[in-house]
TrEMBL record, chain A:
Keyword Amino-acid biosynthesis: yes
HAMAP family for this protein: MetX_acyltransf (MF_00296)
Organism: Leeia aquatica
Quaternary context: Homodimer.
Record-linked InterPro entries: AB_hydrolase_1, AB_hydrolase_fold, HAT_MetX-like
Gene Ontology cellular-component annotations: cytoplasm
Role this protein plays: Transfers a succinyl group from succinyl-CoA to L-homoserine, forming succinyl-L-homoserine.
Gene: metXS
Compartment list: Cytoplasm
Enzyme class: transferase
Recorded catalytic activity of this chain's protein: L-homoserine + succinyl-CoA = O-succinyl-L-homoserine + CoA
Keyword Glycoprotein listed: no
Domain AB hydrolase-1 as annotated: residue spans: 50-340
Alphabetized Gene3D superfamilies for the sequence: 1.10.1740.110, alpha/beta hydrolase (3.40.50.1820)
UniProt name for this protein: Homoserine O-succinyltransferase
TrEMBL record, chain B:
Domain of life: Bacteria
Protein name: Methionine biosynthesis protein MetW
Gene assigned in the entry: metW
Alphabetical list of Gene3D superfamilies matching this protein: Vaccinia Virus protein VP39
Any Pfam family matching the protein: MetW
Amino acid sequence: MSQDKGGSVGCVVPQTAQFDQPLLLTCGVTVPRYQLVYETYGELNADRSNAVLICHALSGHHHAAGLHHEDDKAAGWWDNMIGPGKPIDTERFFVVALNNLGGCHGSTGPSTIDPETGNPFGSRFPLVTVKDWVDSQARLADQLGIAQWAAVVGGSLGGMQALMWTMSFPERIRHAVVIASAPRLSAQNIAFNDVARQAILTDPDFHGGDYYAHGVVPTRGLRLARMLGHITYLSDDGMGSKFGRLLRGERFNYNFDVEFQIESYLRYQGDKFAGYFDANTYLLMTKALDYFDPARRYGEGNLSRALSRAKASFLIAAFDSDWRFSPDRSREIVKALTDNRLPVTYAEIRSVHGHDAFLMDDPQYFAVMRRYFDRIAAEGV
Amino acid sequence: MLTLRPEFLQIAEQIAPGSRVLDLGCGDGSLLALLQRERQVTGYGVDRDDANIAACLDNGVHVIQSDLESGLSMFESGSFDYVLLSHTIQSMHDVEGILREMARVGRECIVSFPNFGFWQNRWQILCGRMPVSDLIPYQWYDTPNIHFCTVNDFDHLAGQLGFRLLDKRVMHRGRLVHWWPNWRGSVAIFRLGQRG
């Protein structure tokens, strides 16, 4: 019944933007130069008014849609949402997706070789915040000749970036689409992040963050961190219906090997992740989540005051089974927006998929996204 | 696709141009879309139904998906000029609660509902059946409506809750009914203010 079966953007080639102007980070460190890897889909129109920025979540990157080569088995991480005829329709919008500063997929980050030393930055790479990302994204927009985004879109940590855009650069964003996100982390959220970080930091192969020089990676820690994270991305019901108490074999073995299907699944996810993600980037991105607090930066602790700077229209979406960033957290954002009389639509979508629902193909979710982008297009792009 | 009920025009007439409006149980957003066009209002609709959220987006209305039974905590006190509740009150559990919340967030409240005291409804009951009509298009066993009232009943409750009656209109088939409204009118529209 889903009407959202548009086409693919096809083969895409990542591009690299070089920035030689120093960037002062929130932590006080200045990055003298850096690069960001990004992809674009669709065409920028003549008056440069149809650009949409896609912000990635915790473990994300720039490859949001299409394939990297003809035989690519997996498409970009949000390929179901972005493409010709899809909710974020590349026949109307020029879509930009990037890998954030501090990432491990080509943008300057801890695993990048520091040209001054010839070694990876490792432990010397500074902590970045959502605000720093938004600042660096604004410079990418400058390079691409985009004075104002038609929309900035993101789920989870990506939604935080979209929200930050409305406060940091209110004139440069017409619509913010904030999905499965929160205005700041709760103590429970931070606690989960710290357990994940401790798994990495206490891995004997971590070497204070300079494991590159030792020819090892803290695989065990990263794997545990991802397993923990993964549990928080799913809902109990979703996990229950997919795995229940299914066993791999026929009976209990009374040992610590993999017995239940859920154990097998989590270990597989953990191993896969540890194989392609950088531990330092994971540390840095979870800290960016913890530090995110626009109310503190812009509103003396009051989110409504902080959002009084905003001029954008908003789509806020939450999923009822998401306990990591529950609908209550999204409603806090909605309240701050209505306090400021800002245009906002809020959709609370039923789903069993928990926090991860924002990546999945749900008819109501896609209907809301499609219609919201229809509206953006109708306003004139 | 807008569904324009005749009472919408009666409601629109009472809204000052440029006001802030909150439309509770806004359905597909038709009323708010009309008010945006005819009265240049700003504001939000509130509805809990998935299909209505999508329809509101189509109709150019900003809508907040929420169950009215859980109150209006998302809105600051006194933040709207008008709070509308059109053809929704009969399906609410906590009628007093929502009226109090409306009074909290809005300067004036406009409530419209099907009048159970309308003669055709009374006649159907006299004939031994629960009323079914254009305005009450449900059988007793599959109706979302749980709190029907008459014009007089609502008048009484509004008074009890301390509202000041600013305007009362009763209609049938798009026309105002002045004589014996509680008998001859199928739809009622009340505009209420705080007790002065």
